[in-house]
Amino acid sequence: MAADYMDWLRREGRIVIVGASLAGLRAAETLRAEGFAGELTLIGDEPYEPYDRPPLSKSVLLGMASPHRTELPHRLDIDAKWRLGVPATGLDLTAKRVKLADGDEVQYDRLLIATGVRARPWPKEDEARLTGVCVLRTRDDAADLYQRLKAGPRRVFVIGAGFAGSEIASACREMGIPVTVAERAGAPLVGALGGVIGAVAADLQTEHGVDLRTHVTVTSLEGDSVGRVRAVHLSDESVVEADVVVVSLGSQRNTEWLTGSGLGAGPRGIACDAGCRAFDFRGIVTDDVFVAGDVARSPHALFGYQFLSLEHWGNAVAQAETAAHNMICRGADRRPHLWMPAFWSSMFGVNIKSVGVPPMGDQLMITQGSPAERRFVGVYGYQGRVIAAVSFDNTRWLEFYARQIERGAPFPVEYPTVDRRPENRQPVAADFPDPSLPTHGPTVTLSGYSPADQQLVFHPARH
């Protein structure tokens, strides 16, 4: 019976993908490439076909690429129905229907959820509406911010020194625009890479002319008589005049539309098994709903089977391809999603890349180069094994460390390495902040062991 159903599904079933972005497109292509001949529908809340997001905070802000020329290439004709500019508003698991904002409903036999994340807005709505207060996540956000930077503002103020905030500050300085960055932690990037590497990032920013304010929070945004932002008030009672404010406080996962659906969905994402099948709110795996991309939280054998949420281009592609494959094959042919977490960024002339899960590490060793020279590799350890690595302008070593993570290599690192300095023989504390605080914005987030967890605040067992 199961074999008959799968044959029928592949031949004339209905598959709906909610989320017309990178993961949605690559899943659709995989379905067609692996022989799915039925009806395929992609639903997206934006009016655009899938586009590439990494250039939005880099080349687009610098005017080197148009935000309207960032469409993702189609690897093959997916012969799909596109429902663009109409967000999904609800899911009926029993009737197998997706509800849309225009009142329509779309029937499915199998569903893939790839709704991703959105920028976390400034929490005070009246201040968020001031002209000049921006976020950066979508193509329209990038087009708006680019025009404001091009107009030559007196000063840009960036709230939050995660990767996105730091990249925006870097673009401002490259354009010769004065910029202030406020971060409540002690340095930029501390949620993603810890305090030791954060100190390197802080030096990088100040050396390039960024007015970096740490251990402070923004208490309010002040507008003028016509509703334009004019100043930023900080918790140390200082005031900074600025006519563009970019709110860069991390992201929120797009799961609200699933409220009441019965899925295990919440602020930390949608729980799924290693085969990308969604869990319901009781922790029981579903048969016909799959998850991929930034909105998914899935267990990983290399990291203690904790659920991981990964905001990364490569993970979105790999997980979408795995989910699509598993949607249309028999159980014995399914495969797990075991992508090695990885991330990259570019700021202030330095390429930063990482593999593994740095926030899981409690110790750090510099194994190549020197942080003072902005060219090094740092290796993170947890419970006596290598768990992650980060490089500044030294990417060639990361593949080696990815293999070390896979085989559970011991930590501290004992083997000799090229360009290893005598002062780096001993590990130091990686100095990560309390991970239960949600706004530090790591791109790899640990979220415990429960598929039914729908809480925003997460307290890992080791803290």
From TrEMBL:
Start and end residues of each Reductase C-terminal domain: 343-411
InterPro entries for this protein: FAD-oxidoreductase/Apoptosis, FAD/NAD-bd_sf, FAD/NAD-binding_dom, FAD/NAD-linked_Rdtase_dimer_sf, Reductase_C
Residue spans crossing the bilayer: none
Region annotation Disordered: where it falls in the sequence: 416-449
Cofactors that this protein relies on: FAD
Domain of life: Bacteria
Keywords tagged on the record: FAD, Flavoprotein, Oxidoreductase
Pfam family, any one: Pyr_redox_2
SUPFAM superfamilies found in the cross-reference section: FAD/NAD(P)-binding domain, FAD/NAD-linked reductases, dimerisation (C-terminal) domain
Domain FAD/NAD(P)-binding: 14-320
UniProt keyword Zinc present: no
Entry-linked PANTHER family: APOPTOSIS-INDUCING FACTOR 1 (PTHR43557), RIESKE DOMAIN-CONTAINING PROTEIN-RELATED (PTHR43557:SF2)
Name of this protein: FAD/NAD(P)-binding oxidoreductase
Species this chain originates from: Streptomyces camelliae
